Amino acid sequence: MHTVVATGIGVVAPNGASVEPFWASLLSGDASLDEATVLPQSGIIVSEVRDNAFLDRLPVKAAALDRSAQFAVVAAGEALAMANITKDTVDPTRVAVIIGNGAGGQVSMDAQFERLYRQGLSRLNPLTVAKSMVSSSASWVSIAYGLLGPTFVIASACASGTHAIGVAAGLVRAGIVDVAVAGGTEAPLAAGTIRAWDSMRILSPDACRPFTANRKGLILGEGCGMLVIESEAHARARGARSLATVAGFASCADAGDMFNPSCDGMARAMRGALADAGMSAADIGYINAHGTGTQANDVTETEAAKQVFGADSCPPMSAIKSVTGHGLGASGGIEAAATVLALSRGMLPPTANYDKADPACDLDYVPNVPRAARPRAAISNSFAFGGLNATLVLAAA
């Protein structure tokens, strides 16, 4: 079994369309929030990638891709460049592309529904099927960079990105592939999708405030986070720098309620990932929380952490959705990227907008200000609707 290391990171997020501005924004706590572009005068606040300059780095024709696939191709390109991998420097048949995507091409599908139902047009764009199918982001990353290994998408709602990285790490660990491009992407900010989320009454009217007494719900977001992972031996042979070790992964189901999270399920995922990594709770020095800013999730995740680590010995925990918004299937990829950066750069990103303590959420959430720290290892959590739980253990290089 091979040790798995991360050698590249790529990000397209509302708070930064590449790694460096993304990281700077996480540390400063500056979010990019505004009224949804597709719903002007609606009062619905979202976290949107508003600068389309990232498309200048797209190596294929933008019009052929849904927005979620555009994010994926650009972020994958940044991660591959950081890792110094091309189809000519490695065996492309041994490079996998595993991407988490919860909903597929929502923007493309919504645009065609507009043509069909509002404009009364009988013919739709002939690329509609190719752009809207959930697997298109993985296909386009494979096509754009000539990668010929196992290529597919995992859809598990808000846990999709974390599941994708965990499954990809398993392929590398088992020696099935040498390298994998893995993460999550999502572009759900279409009018119909936003209205659907708004109908659940879990969207915040102004900001995301995870773990605070004043939290009012989540902010819907979009974007992509990608890692390049490979076997340690393969990285060493290439002279590549390891940013972190993908040490453990576990996933489980609550088999309970579609919307109400289970403390026991969250705890089982964390314990399973620790066991897979061969670590104990004492080895973890940071938790990148799922931290949605909703009433139920934040209390449940707090209690699950206490189950695993003990009420008096929980490591610091922060929720970057306070800055990025909730990128749904992308969130696990974006948060894994942030966790690798935290380990490799010795800085814990804060939970922004932390203004009032909640007695039911009584842990150390790294409020508002980043914290210098060098943890041996960290956890990145994703807990999705449907009771789908996934946890990664990432260790310092």
Sheet with most strands: 10 strands, mixed
Number of DSSP helices? 12
Pairing-aware structural class of the strands and helices?
alpha/beta
What would the CATH topology of the largest domain be? Peroxisomal Thiolase, Chain A, domain 1
Helix content: 25-40%
**Strand order of the biggest β-sheet:** 5-4-6-8-1-9-15-14-10-11
The CATH homologous superfamily of the largest domain is named Thiolase/Chalcone synthase
- How large a portion of the residues is in β-strands, by DSSP E? 15-25%
Chain-averaged pLDDT? 97
CATH architecture of the largest domain: 3-Layer(aba) Sandwich
User: H/E series, N to C?
Assistant: EHEEHEHHHEHEHEEHEHEHEHHEEEE
- Integer tally of domains: 2
Query: N-to-C terminal Cα separation, in Å?
Result: 18 Å
Estimated radius of gyration: 19 Å
Mass-distribution shape: globular
The count of strands amounts to 15
CATH class of the largest domain: Alpha Beta
Return residue spans where pLDDT drops below 50 for at least 5 consecutive residues.
none
Provide structural commentary.
By secondary structure, the chain is α/β, with parallel strands linked by helices. It folds into 2 domains: 235 residues, Peroxisomal Thiolase, Chain A, domain 1, CATH 3.40.47; 151 residues, Thiolase/Chalcone synthase (Peroxisomal Thiolase, Chain A, domain 1, 3-Layer(aba) Sandwich), CATH 3.40.47.10. A 10-stranded mixed beta sheet has the order 5-4-6-8-1-9-15-14-10-11, with helices on both faces. A 3-stranded mixed beta sheet has the order 2-3-7, with no helix packed on it. Strands 12-13 form a two-stranded antiparallel ribbon. α2 packs across α5, α6 packs across α12 and α9 crosses α10. The mean pLDDT is 97.
